[in-house]
Amino acid sequence: MRKTIIAGNWKMNKTPSETTDFIKALIPLVDGARCEVVLGVPFVCLQNAVEAVKGTAVKISAQNIHFEENGAYTGEISAKMLCDIGVEYVIIGHSERRQYFAETDVTVNKKVLKALENGLKPIICVGEHLSQREQGITEEIVSMQTKVALCGVSVDDMKNVVIAYEPVWAIGTGKTATSDQADEVCGIIRRVVADMYGNDVADGLTIQYGGSMNAKNAAELLLKDNVDGGLIGGASLKTEDFSIIVHAAE
Ligand code: PEP
């Protein structure tokens, strides 16, 4: 059985003190959830978040790392720094980072390798643009992103990898993929992973859907065979909505 993971991506929202208050309010709402609950918070909120989830099953994620171990990279944060404060996951290659910060499949791969080397679990984001879907090349795009992101990742490390299928046209737009579309592309990703690592690894891999998932549509998306959770932006900023999604995953 693979793990269902509901992860919030707060993007550039909430202050450290708001983080503490949010988590205090969220904990009783998701207590005892039968899926993994992860909160992806801004760098400066990580310490408060790690403190606030102590003694609970909720895990904390960063939203980015640098691909080098350390050095002259002003303004950057390393995987080692995050592990040191108790962060467990890191979102890598989100489409906003690809769009606004020039991340490429190659830098995504370097970050994935660095995360794994330091014991951080990467949530790797892949997904096509609307024009690519309209051209009928979704499969090629997503397969290529997956293959490059995983280049050099060992079979053993695959147990710590999560992939999030996030069609770019669905992120923050209110246009959710249909549950069939989400299932189809998550299935394509699973086949790519099966070709690279075999069926056991592919069957054990958590593949999330992300893109305007909310309290209303989560249950239908999460019912699909190949959809093992969600990466949730906007709806993760409200405790009520986020907890509804967590319970939909059960
Ligand atoms: C995201 O940021 O990964 C995301 C899916 O955002 P939203 O849920 O707001 O579309």
Calculate Rg over CA atoms.
Answer: 17 Å
> Percentage of helical residues?
40-55%
List bound small molecules. Answer: phosphoenolpyruvate
In what range is the share of β-strand residues? Answer: 5-15%
What is the count of β-strands?
Answer: 8
Largest sheet: 8 strands, parallel, barrel
CATH topology: TIM Barrel
CATH superfamily: Aldolase class I
CATH architecture: Alpha-Beta Barrel
* Alpha-beta classification: alpha/beta
Mean pLDDT: 97
Which tags fit this structure?
eight-stranded parallel barrel, 250 residues, binds phosphoenolpyruvate, TIM Barrel, globular, alpha/beta, 15% strand, 11 helices
Describe the structure.
It is built from eleven helices and eight strands. By secondary structure, it is of the alpha/beta class. It has an eight-stranded parallel barrel with strand order 1-2-3-4-5-6-7-8, surrounded by five helices. Helix 1 packs parallel to helix 2 (46-52). The radius of gyration is 17 Å and the shape is globular.
Please summarize what this structure is.
This protein has 250 residues and is of the alpha/beta class. The protein has helices spanning 16-30, 46-52, 79-84, 95-100, 105-117, 130-135, 138-149, 179-197, 199-204, 218-222, 239-248; strands at residues 5-9, 36-40, 59-62, 89-92, 121-126, 162-165, 206-210, 229-232.
